Amino acid sequence: MKLNLFNSKKKKHISETPGYIDSDPAKCVQCGICSYNCPIGIDVRAHVWDREPMINTQCITCGRCIALCPRGVLQFVATDGLSKDTLWST
Questions:
Q1: Residue 22 belongs to what H/E stretch?
Q2: E strand or H helix at 47, and its extent?
Q3: pLDDT band, residue 89 (cuts 50/70/90)
Q4: How many whole angstroms separate alpha carbon 58 and alpha carbon 25?
Q5: In this structure, are residues 31 and 68 in contact, taking their beta carbons and an 8 Å threshold?
Q6: CA separation (Å) from 60 to 6, 10, 42, 53, 63?
Q7: Distance between CA 58 and CA 80 in Å, rounded?
Q8: CATH classification of 19-78 is 3.30.70.20, yes or no?
Q9: Which residues neighbour 28 within 8 Å (Cβ) at sequence distance 6 or greater?
């Protein structure tokens, strides 16, 4: 039996731009279009429901969720990328 202790097939996600996705939960109708279209598979709708900005997630900030949201719930918040609150987890 061969054990693979180092998962070499794990995909590394690289942020496309420094910042994070924030939301206005009052506008959200929980349609799920944002989560369905996330290329990484993040449950964006859950972040909106919990009123949590998508900081320290695997989000690559591609903007698909923002562009496809029919109610304008999501917005991109730019950062300098150096703040400890906005560094992406590994």
A1: strand 19-23
A2: helix 44-49
A3: very low
A4: 21
A5: no
A6: 23, 16, 10, 14, 8
A7: 18
A8: yes
A9: 45, 48, 49, 71, 73
Better pLDDT: 27 or 86? 27
Q: Which of 10, 57, 14, 66 is nearest to 37 (CA)?
A: 66
Contact 28, 48 (CB under 8 A): yes
Kindly tell me if the per-residue pLDDT of 52 is higher than 70. Answer: yes
Interatomic CA distance for residues 27 and 4, integer angstroms: 46
Give me the half-sphere count of Cα atoms (radius 13 Å) on the Cβ side of residue 15: 22
pLDDT confidence tier of residue 43, bands split at 50, 70 and 90:
very high
Task: Tell me what pLDDT residue 55 has.
Answer: 82
Q: Which residue has the tokens 């939301």?
A: 23
The pLDDT tens digits of the residues spanning 29-42 come to: 999 999 999 999 99
